[in-house]
Amino acid sequence: MNKDYSLWTPVKKEINNKKPRFTFKVGEVWITSVGENVGFEEDGKGKSFNRPVLILKKFNKFLCHVVPLSTTEKRGKYYFEIDTHTNKYSVALLSQNKTIDSLRLFRKIGFVSKETLFKVRLEIAKNTLEL
C-alpha cells in the first residue's frame, strides 16, 4: 500500500495554524480532516482529507475522542450502523476510534441521540476489552 504523504503535509500545516477553533459537543457529527494515515488506519478523502466523525467524549475545548464514520455499508463486529440525522447511511468504524485536536474539525453536519451515543460507546468498550 503506497501512499503519497506529500499532499497531506501542506494541509496538516494549514490545519495546525487554523484560527479560531470551533466549539463542539459530545454526540455531534463533524466533517473532520483526519489526514492520510499509516497502513490500514482510516484515511480522509478529497483535497482536505476529510471524513465524518462522531464525537464520543470531550476532554476540553482542544481535545475530543471520536469514531470515524463511513457511508459505505459494512457489516461485522467492528461496525455499528447509526442514525446521524444527515439523511445518509452511516456506520461507525468502531476499531478506528481515536483522540484528535479540535483544530481538525471543519463543519458540523449532524448528531446522534443519547441512546445511540451510549450504544456506540458500549460496543467500543465490548470490542476493545472483549467483555
Helix and strand topology:
Elements lengths: L7 H9 L11 E6 L16 E9 L4 E8 L8 E4 L7 E4 L4 E4 L3 E7 L2 H16 L2
Antiparallel strand pairs: 1-2, 1-7, 2-3, 3-5, 3-6, 4-5
How would you characterize the overall build of this protein?
The chain has helices at 8-16, 114-129, and strands at 28-33, 50-58, 63-70, 79-82, 90-93, 98-101, 105-111. By secondary structure, the chain is an alpha+beta fold.
How many beta-strand runs? 7
Number of H- or I-type helical stretches: 2
Estimated helix fraction:
10-25%
* Order of helix and strand elements from N to C terminus: HEEEEEEEH
What is the fold-level CATH name, i.e. the topology? Answer: SH3 type barrels
Q: Quick one: CATH class?
A: Mainly Beta
Strand content: 25-35%
Low-confidence runs: none
Structural class: alpha+beta
Q: What is the name of the CATH architecture?
A: Roll
How many domains? The number is 1
Q: Compute the gyration radius: what is it?
A: 14 Å
Keywords:
single chain, 131 residues, alpha+beta, SH3 type barrels, 7-stranded antiparallel sheet
Compact overview of the structure:
With about 130 residues, the protein is α+β, with helices and mostly antiparallel strands. It is about 20% helix and about 30% strand.
